[in-house]
Design goal:
This protein is α/β, with parallel strands linked by helices and 355 residues long. 35% of the residues lie in helices and 22% in strands. It is built from 14 helices and 12 strands. The strands form 2 sheets. Strands 6-7-8-3-9-10-12-11 form an 8-stranded mixed β-sheet, with helices on both faces. The longest helix has 18 residues. The N terminus and C terminus are likely disordered. The protein binds iron/sulfur cluster. The site of iron/sulfur cluster (SF4) has 13 residues, from α12.
Length: 355
């Protein structure tokens, strides 16, 4: 198995991931053909509205969708995960990949002390003796910035503040030194100051441990702070993927532009109305033949009839637009990269001579 600590090694590789659920209303295609990569030591921000498929994607990576139909490919450090049994997945969870949830209170067991819960994860994966696991739990609580960690390890989750609980969750997630951390809206329930502290904590441990981080959020401010690359999801599909600066400076997908334009600006007058993308996300219970954003897309609305027909009738496939950027749109706001046509030999030779 390749090392997961080398820079640039694709730690997590997801290809053409599809996740569907059978419901009384029919089959819901929650994720439909999503591909991305997370490298060791880098953060991919997975962005989208509720129902865009971002959390379902992360749960599929963690093997937590036993009742769903999952297809495609998910590799972690070169190991294909989808054929694994529940038991095999459970050996990887915590040890190779760990998850931090939005609400630590529901993720932590109320009847056990925080220290016991962190120690238990270590005992489960490494068979560590009780006393050593307890020491390790105290060390982890100290590492994530919990004051008096030896004392706090003996307290119960309800005795921790929201920010401290999230730190404890991060300590638990990191206690078995995973390669991949999935953080699902880890700061949504926290006030702004604590949010900044938690994001700084994640960034620090990521650098120290060369963790790959998949940061799931609806908050573009969080993405701007922590992500190296961003994948914008809409209607269960990838709309746009790009390095974070490129995406913020020059969004190429109309949905990405709509999201960025919805952000409040410092120079907005106090009484400025909130900017929103009109309309609602698509229902995933019915098949979508064209682009899922078509009913809300201003770009399609302004387009000629032929293009509009493509938008509603033909699924846009991801196209490369520049280094590291791909966009699924028939009428993107930036031109796609066209491969440079090969010059005839004589012209190539001439170019070589004039260098
Ligand atoms: Fe808009 Fe058409 Fe592009 Fe979809 S494919 S985002 S509807 S222009």
């Amino acid at each position: 198995m390749p090392s997961t600590t080398e820079p640039g090694v694709p730690l997590l590789r997801v290809r053409d991931l599809k996740v569907a659920f059978d419901t009384p209303a029919g089959t819901v295609q929650a994720v439909d053909g999503v591909s991305f990569t997370v490298e060791a030591g880098s953060t991919l921000g997975l962005v989208g509205e509720s129902g865009s498929g971002k959390s379902v994607t992360s749960l599929a990576v963690m093997g937590l969708h036993q009742r769903a139909q999952v297809s495609g490919s998910i590799t972690l450090a070169g190991q294909e995960l989808l054929p694994l049994t529940d038991h095999q997945f459970s050996r990887l969870r915590g040890r190779k990949m760990a998850m931090v949830f939005q609400d630590p209170l529901s993720a932590l067991h109320p009847a056990y002390t925080v220290g016991e819960q962190i120690a238990e994860a270590h005992r489960h994966h490494f068979g560590t003796r009780r006393r050593a696991a307890r020491r390790q739990a105290v060390d982890m609580l100290g590492e994530v910035g919990i004051p008096e960690p030896a004392r706090r390890a003996g307290e119960y989750p309800h005795q921790f503040s929201g920010g401290m609980r999230q730190r404890a969750m991060i300590a638990m997630a990191l206690s078995c030194e995973p390669d991949l951390l999935i953080a699902d809206e880890p700061t949504t329930a926290l006030d702004v100051t604590v949010q900044a502290q938690i994001l700084e904590l994640i960034a620090r441990v990521q650098q120290e441990r060369r963790l790959g981080v998949l940061m799931i959020t609806h908050d573009l401010g969080v993405v701007a702070r922590v992500a190296n690359d961003v994948l914008v999801m809409y209607g269960g599909r990838a709309a746009e993927q790009a390095p974070v600066d490129d995406l913020f400076l020059r969004p190429a997908h109309p949905y990405t532009r709509g999201l960025l334009e919805s952000l409040p600006r410092l120079d907005d007058p106090d009484d400025a109305p909130l900017r929103v993308i009109p309309g609602s996300p698509p229902s995933l219970a019915a098949p979508i033949s064209g682009c899922p954003f078509a009913p809300r897309c201003p770009q399609a609305e302004r387009a000629e009839e032929l293009v509009r027909a493509r938008c509603t009738g033909e699924r846009p496939r991801p196209q490369e637009h520049s280094s590291g950027r791909s966009v699924s749109c028939h009428l993107p706001l930036l031109p796609a990269v066209r491969p440079r046509p090969a010059l005839p030999h004589s012209e190539d030779d001439q170019e070589e001579k004039t260098r």
